[in-house]
Amino acid sequence: xxxxxxxxxxxxxxxxxxxxxxxxxxxxxxxxxxxxxxxxxxxxxxxxxxxxxxxxxxxxxxxxxxxxxxxxxxxxxxxxxxxxxxxxxxxxxxxxxxxxxxxxxxxxxxxxxxxxxxxxxxxxxxxxxxxxxxxxxxxxxxxxxxxxxxxxxxxxxxxxxxxxxxxxxxxxxxxxxxxxxxxxxxxxxxxxxxxxxxxxxxxxxxxxxxxxxxxxxxxxxxxxxxxxxxxxxxxxxxxxxxxxxxxxxxxxxx
Length: 254
Ligand SMILES: O=P(O)(O)OC[C@@H](O)[C@@H](O)c1c[nH]c2ccccc12
Description:
Elements: H1 2-15, H2 29-34, E1 41-46, E2 49-50, E3 54-55, H3 62-72, E4 76-80, H4 90-97, E5 104-107, H5 113-122, E6 126-130, H6 136-148, E7 152-157, H7 160-169, E8 174-178, H8 190-196, E9 204-208, H9 214-222, E10 227-230, H10 232-235, H11 240-249
Parallel strand pairs: 1-4, 1-10, 4-5, 5-6, 6-7, 7-8, 8-9, 9-10
Antiparallel strand pairs: 2-3
Helix pairs in contact: 3-11, 5-6, 6-7
Bound molecules: indole-3-glycerol phosphate (IGP).
């Protein structure tokens, strides 16, 4: 799947044009996660669909969802900007950026420096860089570019092998452990449990995917995650604010 996605991205990159330059306030994902008042900071995702699940939310108003996330007290908002596989759009990110006061993470398949530049233009505070999508050296280059442009990067890994390759090259400040198996699409929190043992102490750890309940969040935190990235479970609930409260506080409201 990742190969298919990257092949499509490569074609998109060839046609990519940068939007007009605008100025944005910037917020730090790192600081926001560090200041989280719960067991782990919540990065809540705006995601309409995915290749493995199809349409996740029919009634999809990205700006309203992000606004509700912000009001419910999340630490950051992740926005899918990939159109082809996730039905996202870069314009969603820009529109969201204008109405929230928390850092906005651009979720896409970034493999080229033009996409990093594009991310800054559209107003991203941070970008996702996927360890399995490129060589560690290339990833480090894009990582440095992001920081030079005033953004941060969440470096995501699935396997221990990839983590080792990256750590041979550099130590990312924010490290995401994706609980989703790239081949089977299954998620398991034991991925976070295992990989957390291999992560350097100076990284802030984010446990990604397959987190549905308050108990899952507590578990991820107990394994060492200072942040969790949650999409589907929030997106499937009608009342976004109540969904966030349930996840963070474990209470069944509404
Ligand atoms: O919907 P979930 O299982 O809560 O997962 C969110 C997020 O981790 C997932 O969307 C994701 C993780 N890494 C990605 C890379 C690209 C696109 C999407 C993703």
